[in-house]
Amino acid sequence: MIKNKKFIMILSAIMVFALVLSACGTKPAEEGEPTGDKAVKDTLVIAQGADAKSLDPHATNDQPSSRVSKQIYNTLVESTVDMELVPGLAESWNQVDETTWEFNIRKGVKFHNGEELKASDVKFSIDRMLASKKVAHIVEAIDSVEVIDDYKVIIKTKEPFGPLLAHLSHTATSIVNEKAVTEAGENYGQNPVGTGPFKFVSWEAGDKITLERFDDYYKGPANVKTVVFRNITEGTNRTIGLETGELDIAYEIEPIDKDRVANHEKLQLIEGPSLSMAYIGMNNQKEPFNNEKVRKAINYAINVDDIITAVLNGAGQKANSPIGPRVFAHNDALKPYEYDPAKAKELLKEAGYENGFQTTIWTNDNPVRMQIAQIVQAQLKEIGIDVAIEPLEWGSYLERTAKGEHDMFILGWVTVTADPDYGLYALYHSSQHGGAGNRNFYTNEEVDKLLEEGRTAIDPEKRTEAYKKAQEIIVNDAPDVLLYYGTQNVGAQKSVKGFELHPAGHHSVYGVSFE
Amino acid sequence: MHKYIFRRLLLLIPVLLGVTFIVFTIMSFTPGDPAQLMLGESAPPEAVEQLRAEMGLDDPFIVQYLRFVGNAIKGDFGRSYTTKREVFSEIFARFPNTLILAAVGVAIAVAIGIPVGIISATRQYSLIDSISMIGALLGVSMPNFWLGLMLILVFSVGLGWLPFAGFESAKSIILPAITLGTGAAAIITRMTRSSMLEVIRQDYIRTARAKGVSEKKVVNKHALKNALIPVITVVGLQFGYLLGGAVLTETVFSWPGVGRLLVEAIRQKDTPTVLASVVFMATTFSFVNLLVDILYAYVDPRIKSQYSK
Amino acid sequence: MTSNVAKGTMTVEKKKNKKRSQWAEVWRRLKKNKMAMLGLAILTILVLTAIFADFIADYDNVVIKQDLVNKLQGPSAEHPFGTDEFGRDIFARMIHGARVSLRVGILAVGISIIIGGTLGAIAGYYGGKLDNVIMRVMDIFLAIPSILLAIAIVSALGPSLMNLMIAIGISSVPSYARIVRSSVLSIRDQEFIEAAKAIGANDLRIILKHIIPNALAPVIVQGTLGVAGAILSTAGLSFIGLGIQPPAPEWGAMLATGRPYLRYAWHVTTFPGLAIMITILALNLVGDGLRDALDPRLKQ
């Protein structure tokens, strides 16, 4: 009996221990937490599907991080939601000669640590970008940055580089404070200091990031006092969070939930174009995809409209070119391949594959891509092509497509800078085969030449001409199947005013207020 | 007994070496290049190669492993490949969240499973027995994430009582802990019942009954203690399972635990994060195992006598 | 009824000659258990469904046939269980899913019982150094969260049906080893084992004839739940994107990919969910019945 009592005591002790642990772990309700019916609401809670990786803009280039960094930092040049380039931290600029640009830095801009923005910070930032493997490719055209005085820098490019201004509007080119970076050392990613409308307060890894209004912001203080970015992985749950009132804004509403949000009495659905393009790549160096007729047959056999309706619930626009209409020099005269299985069969026959062939399509486990793969599999079966779907881990996916081990694959590309150089050079220039971006292993000397011309020309008209021609040739060569340009959506409380979608996918909440 | 505990703690060292070695091997020999992953979709091959060299990924496997062990002994688990954070501090921040979730989950499971299992066994084939067994069946056959989503729909959306995600307040733990604990509760109920039934049929129980010992005393004194030996094993196993298997629950509830971190890290080939989280989990789990074995000794003197040999 | 004391030695001797009749006896007792027979009936139907799936629904023309216009349709005469997000017939997919899910569940558990059970029995029976070595290795494996092991194995071998089974099977080996060991520990010093030793039976024989049958009850309980658990683990792996290759139908994967539609098309997750539950129910009823029937101590 005594033993038995002892045992029960131990058992109770364990349970009490567990409960105490849980009690210790629970946090006191934080001030400023959204309760929904507070008199003055000044905390904006935003949910996205993944946690940021780092708030050091030069250390990462992923969407969740950039969305937060966008509130903390500014860039020299800014792009508006209409993709117009306007002055940011650079008040003005002019081009001295083909490779030399002069930037005048805005005076009186304060960093969150109280330091004033100087030309030396600009030089420091760009040099830092160039040294970062992660983002160097965005500024690789830059040869040197020279400080003229505290408010003027000269940027020299290696060769004439047309899209320089567009590249300097990329969130990865955010300007950091030299002192803050040096002080924080390796921990800078968790202690960011910028010039933006919100300053960093805290980061509970995997859970949320809290930002606070920066009162000395050079455009004037923002409307809301606190911004919280929460990490809500499941798409369904982001909608639920909006419905329960615990979230004010939720990024990436599941296609199936869109109507629910749009029709909800307290919610609004904000939709807009994005700069993303989804495509099915083919290994142009491998049989049978080295045969243009086969590639065209596949283009004719895939019903993109079906994919847009079934997978995206209509939230996409059929692509007619590798770059979308929001990108500079988009060629709107091009016609996409129409769904025509009969023609596809005929082309296959001409190519000598009358009885079709067996191949594989690779995808990572992105649910949208998995669904696309299954539809493509069913559609290609109609013309006799037997496709096996092979889902791969993202790591092996990138590695093996870079090595050219693949047949077909599904990927997307975001032309963040809205400049065709960003969207075409890496994907179609023959020097970029493999990991650099050209996973189709596509080679066309004429396209190479046009892409180089577009890159080095400064005159917008010359660039437009080169890029339009390049798009035409690429679409005609059909190195891949262009699927659609994505649309993005955001769900929000109706009380949220002034939220604007930026096509690049990172939206500034500076202008947001509550009704 | 103390000597035994000390010996077991000493054994933690080879366990941790074994665990890290296995995990390191898997991480090193599975496809996917961390350098390529860090640099993303468009990375010039030269940059990838250079980064590989800088990260020491070109060194022979055994050199890399020994370097890890050497640093780990000094308490340096390195920095995450993806976030550049110190792995140790990141896990230290997130591990308690998982531990709390698993502990509350197991506490719920034990609080439900053992009493219900005992009642069912002592009243075999009664209505209560049938109901609790059906309950246990439902509990174990419900996929975690599905149950979680249903709970959210009912208690967050429908009734508005509890938060739908994250770790915001004490209330936040209720739904994920129930989600996590349900399966374990069902398993513990079944195990308790079947083990009780087995023991009740043993000769010495019959003897006790035959001697006219009251039924209550038979159950409490003789049966329970013996019946709980396999149950303790299961509880220990379940705690470990919940610790590692919290991934799905953590995902459904956006719980900032180490399970989700770990799965993300595996997929990102973020070896430092994976190794450090596994070391944390393995250590905790080994302690739980030790506790289970000590409890064994308390409930079964035969086993205790072995230890003191 | 034989006296308790005599029972141990009696069974040892009887077992030699009466192996056949012992299993007949088990079957006779199992037949008396109505619930177990119900479970067995359900399992039989499931197994037959799995075997004859091709006769009920054609794989190429029904199971993986998409009809995007009719996606997410509720149950109707044409589609008794409705259609999924590709307009595929859920009923037909579930019929073929029985094949996939049962195979994953049973083979995965088979792998872990054979490996884990053997190791656990050896460790428990011999004790000492061997026990220490085996159980410490098990501790190492046990200390790695099973989901991590499964993920790592699947990503090493590539996601396929076979690799999924291996991954799930291997990751639960230590559980069986521990369970078998602890029940062997509680059996090995009992009188009928000593009696067997006394009449000169060798170790292998004792393990096979006495220890294992006696340790079977907890393994069966755990094993029946384990098959179910393996089906659920597959669903879990699908949930984090490591399930079997589409478009193959598997109940867990159907449940996992159907979750965004939970609030709009109840049938997409409900029917596969029910299929899983019924299968688990049947497995449990049979498992419980078997345990009662196998238990030598129940012998009248």
Question: How is this structure best summarized?
Answer:
Chain A has 515 residues and is an alpha+beta fold.
Notes on the structure:
The longest helix of chain A has 24 residues, at 2-25. In chain A, helix 10 packs antiparallel against helix 12 (367-382), helix 14 (420-428) packs antiparallel against helix 15 (445-456) and helix 15 (445-456) packs antiparallel against helix 16 (460-477). In chain A, the strands form 4 sheets. In chain A, strands 1, 8, 9, 10, 11, 12, 13, 14, 15, 16 and 17 form an 11-stranded mixed beta sheet that branches. Chain A contains 16 helices and 19 strands. In chain A, 33% of the residues lie in helices and 23% in strands. Among the domains of chain A are: 78-178, Dipeptide-binding Protein, Domain 1 (Dipeptide-binding Protein, domain 1); 274-487, Roll (Dipeptide-binding Protein, domain 3). By secondary structure, chain B is mainly alpha-helical. Chain C is built from 14 helices and no strands. The model of chain C is unreliable at 1-10 (pLDDT under 50). In chain C, 52% of the residues are buried. In chain C, helix 10 runs antiparallel to helix 12 (203-239). At the A-B interface, helix 1, helix 7 and helix 13 of A face helix 2, helix 3, helix 5, helix 7 and helix 10 of B.
